Amino acid sequence: MLREVLAGVVAIVSKEAVQHQGITLTMEGIVNLQLSSKSVGVFEAFYNSVKPIQLITSNIEVVKQGKVPGGKTEIPFEFPLHTKGNKVLYETYHGVFVNIQYTLRCDMKRSLLAKDLSKTCEFMVHCLPQKAKLQPTPVDFTITPETLQNVRERSLLPKFLIRGHLDATNCVITKPLTGELVVESSDVAIKSIELQLVRVETCGCAEGYARDATEIQNIQIAEGDVCHSLPIPIYMVFPRLFTCPTLETINFKVEFEVNVVIVLHDEHLITENFPLKLCRA
Amino acid sequence: VAPVEFSDYHPLKSITVTDSKSRRGARKGSTSSSSSSSSSVAPDPLSSMLDGTDPLSMFAAASATTCTISSRREKEDEVGVDFEPWSSKRGEILARFTTTEKLSINLFMGSEKGKAPSLASSAVSEKVRTRLEELDDLEEGSQRELLNLSQQDYVNRIEELNQSLKEAWASDQKVKALKIVIQCSKLLSDTAVIQFYPSKFVLITDILDTFGRLVYERIWSMCSDPRPLPDSFTADEVNDTAKETCLNWFFKIASIRELIPRLYVEVALLKCNRFLTKCGIQETVPRLTAMIRGIGDPLVAVYARAYLCRIGMEVAPHLKDSLNKNFFDLLGTFRQIHGDSVQNQLVLQRVEIPVYLTLYSPAIHWILQCVSYRAPEALLTEMMERCKKLGNNALLLNSVMWAFRAEFIATRATDFIGMIKDCDEAGFPQHLLFGSLGRSLACADPPEAERLPILNEAWKVITKVRSPQDYINCAEIWVEFTCRHFTKREVNTVLSDIIKHMTPDRAFEDAYPQLQSVIRKILTYFHDFSVLFSMERFLPFMDMFQKDSVRVGVCLSIMDVFIKHQQEPTRDPVILNALLHVCKTMHDSVNALTLEDEKRSLALLINGFIRMVSFGRDFEQQLSFCVEARATFCNLEPVLVQLIHTVNQLAMETRRVMRGSHSRKTAAFVRACAAYSFITIPSLTSIFSRLNLYLLSGQVALANQCLSQADAFLKAAVSVLPEVPRSISIEGKLRSSEGFLLDFINNFLSALLVVPDHPEAGVLFLVRGLLNMVQDYTWEDNSDAKVHVYISALPLLAAMSQESYLYSIPKVDSNETLYGGDPKFLAEINKLCETLIGQVLDHLKTLGRDEVGRTMPSLLSTRPSSQTWLTFQTCSTASPCSPGPEDIDCIPFFLHISMCTGGIVSPCNCILCLVPTICQPVSWRALNVLIFIFQYFIWTS
């Protein structure tokens, strides 16, 4: 990443020649942290302290004050992606409470009579693939009324036995999440089985932290009363733009989890949670 | 902060963020994919990156520059013509699975217009606003449930959706197109009104097919620069934009929340995997196969499998393993069909188990057809074994018999019968099973020794089927097997069984198509009509066709077969009686409303039959048959004509047998024939048929020495002449009858040569009679026809005046012998000729008075024959005074006259009357001709 440059051209298209006071390019990488409305009351004091974290910034003047001739003018440029100090360039990510965004802004200053012109465009940063070969970490699971937590009246629960496995919880972001699930038995008919992909964003520092989970995607893998003791595939493609490699820094964290949600016909909802670790490979 | 409106049309938005903790509450309602869209979502900065355009439109724009390439058919070697295509099943399914119950469509799409824009903010650009509205429409708020649709309404709605899909695609609204497709496939998870489900499947997969094709073609067209991809392209030849677009589609589909739409849409786009990787399809199909396991409802699942197999066969027919996997998965989930959920649903919908089970047939048939297509014997055997192991397998058994190769079934027919017998009575209807078995056996032959036991076993079951409709459906199939391998005895038994079942309560009335098909099958195998009609139950079987149109249809098919296959004329009383009966039925169906064409085809068939009847030497029998036939077929004129011809032929045949000299008995017989014709002809309405038949019959009578009969015929013909209308209708068009009349008269005249005068009537009474009629006939105005007749009468008279006639009829004394060249006779002829020539010249005069140049040549040019011309040329070279070229038109005419009259009329006589008449009106040219004729006369005589 360090060796990479951001290159391109500034294109100016106009009918007539344009007088200007200089054209500049500004590159910026920022982490924006925001607190969810729920957390605001609790961490009001803390709220103010959440400031955008600047990862990279750079500014160059492309053209000195002068005149650009009519027609289309293209001015090539290149930015080396040098970080400030020991900061790391995180992968571009757009979440709800955490945003990592890289932008490039071009400004054309003009005389007092004319408005300054400005154009902003985002550029994406992807981490380099991990060098180390990823070892799959399969997870087996069994769900019965007894394994459930957070149940009010255990005796009212119908009997069921659901088994299954995930092929890996450390997933390559470009590869689907896979596994299998078997309904061995269930007293009450099953209405639906879904995979819920959840991202957990944590913003925090020494004073405290705010943790928010949001659903990104919900994929139904079974509909209706599926055949018992027949393995049903678990398969989910990670949506682009909404997922990124799991990220842990001092100030914030972006993590992902998958919930296997089983809805029974009597509206009982059974959820089994699996934290995931996403990476690029 | 990025503008709010951008995030609103992010393509993935509808499945975005919702607070997981609030899910439990939201869960209760629908499970729609857009349930979360109303939750408060922080503005998504990512969307700003998209620069206001969703990725779909971006690639659409990219591809808009390249024109779409018309659809192309991929010819896979592996699917041959022997694979019955889906298109042939479609109609069958739609026709078979219908309902009278009310249906409902639950859609999230609203009407495109008609909603007041809620966001009237001026800050929002026009484009953004319309996009927002469109999305609003597709939001939950516009969810529309169409209730109480009749089946036809439902079909129309689906067709509308199909149309709006195409429109949306054409107008670049890719997101909307996708939404339509998703909503449609969602309908397939709804099994309300379950009897209609197979048809619904057909309708909706049509939409999916359209969609799949559109996407494929769009991506394909993106790669057409610089030149179109070859049919057998690989992923390496696909450019990056196309790949990215394709990938985009797959990502979008992968994020569809609900299982069934996701599955169907992905299957619809299966072919697009070719753009991405070489083995994309190969990897995807097994995954999709496994994915279907998640569908709980067995009916929905089996149809999903059928769709996957169908697309799989189209796109990658070599992937047999996946097809097999589908089938084995189906077996694995087979017990679901008898599970509690299904039973509850059936009770709720009040659907019987046997009816429910038949809903599976089209899908399982299709899957098995794909699986068994060119499959090795071992695989088929394995599949059968696995079916066998499963309890309650009648449904599968049925499909196996339908879909597997007929030969495979036929060789194991006895096993199958055993299996069918073992099946649970309460489940799949047994008669359907036997029906399927019969279908296979109709195409392939079981081992010889097993045939009779098979038939016995099968019929034992079939005959017990109570419902007449079910019974006949099954029996009809087995008739083919019976006809194919057995004799009339067995077929007769089968027929009597059918009669026994179909007669009570007039059940046959509802089964005409099947009964007709029974007849057709019998006719295919039994071409020998003596065998056919010796089946006792055949005619009673025919009696079941009591609806006229059906009855006639059956008779037509019988006669068709008879005419095609009967080689030899027959006198078999059984055949004759039966066919006469059949023909009578056909004939009796003719009424005032019958079309001409129909009558013609009926008459053609009956004529064919009449021609095939021959009693050999027993002429009297033949005549009496004709009498009977005349009585039976009196309404069909062509048949009467045929009968007259037959009788005439009969008379001539008698003459041939008697070598020209009749005995007393045969003489009486031929007179009877003549009498037959004489009384039959007047009943014909067509005047020319009457005339021609009179003439023909007269000639036949003459040939058989029945002089008075011949006279009667010819007199009748002459007396009918005045009735000839001036115009007749031919093929619906009104035409002048003149040509026909002239032809007839010429023909008649030539026949008159040999007709001896009646001793009591005057000399040449027939010729005179004819000429009188011609004289009195109201010819067309300005027509030369009359003169033409006179001119053609001249050669006759000339021939009559000769010492020995050009031809004669053995044993009939013509006028030559009667008069023996009596001068009085010749004088009569001369007088007649003079009158005629006078008439002709009179006519010429009127012509001359009008426009000589115009009319005359047209009159003349009709007459000359090459021979006359030849004569003329020889003459003119010999003659010192040849006419100028400008007269050439007239000459043949005169020449003709002269040749006809030459040798009879004295030249002086002729010339004397010619000179004054021609000279005056005509002019010099005529005079020239006259001189020439004069010379000719002298020269020849």
Automatic annotation (TrEMBL), chain A:
It is found in: Endosome. Gene3D superfamilies: 2.60.40.640. GO terms for biological process: intracellular protein transport. It comes from the Eukaryota. Keywords: Endosome. GO terms for cellular component: endosome. Component of the commander complex that is essential for endosomal recycling of transmembrane cargos; the commander complex is composed of the CCC subcomplex and the retriever subcomplex. Component of the retriever complex, which is a heterotrimeric complex related to retromer cargo-selective complex (CSC) and essential for retromer-independent retrieval and recycling of numerous cargos such as integrin alpha-5/beta-1 (ITGA5:ITGB1). The recruitment of the retriever complex to the endosomal membrane involves CCC and WASH complexes. Belongs to the VPS26 family. Component of the commander complex that is essential for endosomal recycling of transmembrane cargos; the commander complex is composed of the CCC subcomplex and the retriever subcomplex. Component of the heterotrimeric retriever complex consisting of VPS26C, VPS29 and VPS35L; within the complex interacts with VPS35L. Interacts with SNX17 (via C-terminus); the interaction is direct and associates SNX17 with the retriever complex. Interacts with SNX31; the interaction is direct. This is Vacuolar protein sorting-associated protein 26C.
From TrEMBL, chain B:
It is found in: Endosome. Residues 17-49 are annotated as: Disordered. Its main location: other. GO terms for cellular component: endosome. The keyword Cytoplasm does not apply. The chain crosses the membrane at residues 893-915, 922-939. One of its GO terms (biological process) is protein transport. InterPro entries: VPS35L (IPR029705). Residues 28-48 have a biased composition (Low complexity). Belongs to the VPS35L family. This is VPS35 endosomal protein-sorting factor-like. The gene is VPS35L.
